[in-house]
Design goal:
Rossmann fold, globular, alpha/beta
Amino acid sequence: MRIDLTQRSAVVTGGANGIGLATARRLATSGARVAIWDRAVATGAAAVDTLTAEGLEVMFIETDVTDGVSVAAAVAETVGRFGGLDILINNAGIVRDAQLVKVRDGVVVGGMSEADFDAVVSVNLKGVYTCTQAVVPHMLARGWGRVVNASSVVASNGNFGQTNYVAAKAGVVGMTRVWARELGRRGITVNAVAPGFIATDMTAAIPPGILRNMQEHTPLARLGAPDDVANAYCFLVSEQAGFINGAVLSVDGGLVIGT
């Protein structure tokens, strides 16, 4: 199936590396003009250099997705360059893992800090809200739009040491379904992708034994690749996915937690 995004303009948050960069490349190779929004200036600039050298139309804007002023400026710059906005991939995310309370020898010795809870919820949940609210008016002006949000398989099943991350990703699913109801009648679909264990810089820092355990819990017996998620994003923003709205698409190799 060939996906044609010619004449479409897209934003990928957190697009400077990993899944976001793979998504920016996938959308651009399908014909879209792509704006990468990220805080990583050097990495984002390098990504644009690489993609433009491949003949793709891509730009980078330093953006803090948790800051409404920063997002509004990024929207204005993107619309000024592309003339409008059709596609938003809310991909930006961070982790700050810790147990709710850490107990050693029956004594509480630590736990998740309020700062780490707030940071993860701010980027992974509030950032999705902030970017979507700023971009949607430009979709309404065209009577067409695609919003795809990054959730996670852990949103449904929980994950040890990830109170903040799981709460945010579950919240993303809820917002996705609300917006699907609110915006569908305006020609805008809103869906989510729920990746499993994907081989990125984030997972590269995980000890080898835990990575092996992840693979053993995945029926396909491997970690996913960034392109696996990018392909799902690209499908959901295409014309072929025009009657898919409010869905959460798992991209997890058939992962079953705890088996």
